[in-house]
Amino acid sequence: MKGLAMLKIGEIGWIEKERPACGPRDAVVRPLALAPCTSDIHTVWEGAIGDRHNLILGHEALGIVDEVGSEVKDFKSGDRVIVPAITPDWETDAAQRGFPSQTGGPLGGWKFSNSKDGVFGEFFHVNLADYNLAHLPKGMSLEAGVMLPDMLSTGFAGAENANIKFGSTVAVLGIGPVGLSAIAGAKLRGAGRIFAVGTRPASVKVAKEYGATHIVNYKEGDTVEQIRNATNGEGVDAVIVAGGGYEVMMDAINVAKPGSVVSNINYFGSGMGDQDVIPLPRIGWGFGMADKNIMTGLCPGGRVRMERLAEVVMCGRMDPALMATHVFKGFDKLEEALLLMKEKPKDLIKPVVIV
Ligand code: NDP
Ligand code: ZN
User: Fold this and answer.
1) What is the ipTM of this complex?
2) Which residue, 5, 109, 191, 349, has fewest beta-carbon neighbours within 10 Å?
3) Ion ligand 2, residues whose Cβ is below 5 A away
4) Does the predicted model carry a pTM greater than 0.90?
5) Ligand 1 atom closest to 341 (CA)
6) What is the set of domains in the chain, with CATH numbers?
């Protein structure tokens, strides 16, 4: 079978591999709709998690079940499914402690395009099918559905971890598809004012539709100053970090007020200097004592998460398809879509490939 792979740091290409084998509790799935992620860009072009050789990329997919193992109960060949980006080992200690994304060590639930071949192949393997697949609801468009495995799950996690109360003031730093999903999540959790920080016009438009009340252009002025000026110098109750380099954590802490949460869902592809660190502002952080709490999270995965996100969409609470700005037809277009995600033209939010 054919797949689009990371050949080594900085290089991608099409490769041939064996179709994956299916374990007794697993499934082998064919892609129906795929999307590249900015994380694929960090992984390949920044070498952020180390080198990978001939590893098939991709972790955002809707699919058609091709084969299931003998012990799989709820799925059969031909079923249309949502495949979460994160497919935890549900029987592990970390999952039982409530952190399924971290099974088998930090980020261990993230298997596709990290520790095993991803979904950009003609077939891909899904562990624990009954726990890690969800049925694609009838009537959900592929453009909407393919945003669930990662964009909605990650963005909503950013809002969940931010402890947003009714009327909380929220700043979302970065309004790519992850930040936009965080804005939608913040609104659904009852936020009052939502500051959306970013510049790309396509994103600004959707940010307003998803609930942003203020747009902050970080290129035309200091983010912290602009948000402080708009909040009587106070700052915000919650910051969701969804873009930018390591320096963005300085802004996040400086714009957060005491008692706030800084909820990071950003993937820091690189750090500062030889020590590869992410600096925090000593004074802005109240010398470490200002009750400005940092939360971090990898995208939640698994079946129930996907079913709940599908419920949000099917009940018309938000329309994730608004983020699908570039829709390609055909598996062969994957490379073009991935490179577009790398280039990030101004009219792009998210490319989607309908297979
Ligand atoms: P995009 O590149 O599409 O969006 C990034 C956003 O950050 C843009 O709006 C950009 O602005 C903005 N930005 C850049 N620099 C700054 C800055 N200094 N201050 C404020 N905003 C800034 O990324 P995605 O939305 O696709 O992904 C966001 C991050 O989430 C990535 O790092 C990705 O790898 C990570 N991610 C993490 C996951 C997880 O499980 N935690 C899962 C999936 C993705 P502009 O509008 O000017 O371009
Ligand atoms: Zn991702």
Assistant:
1) 0.99
2) 349
3) 37, 39, 150
4) yes
5) 3
6) 2-146+319-354 (3.90.180.10), 155-296 (3.40.50.720)
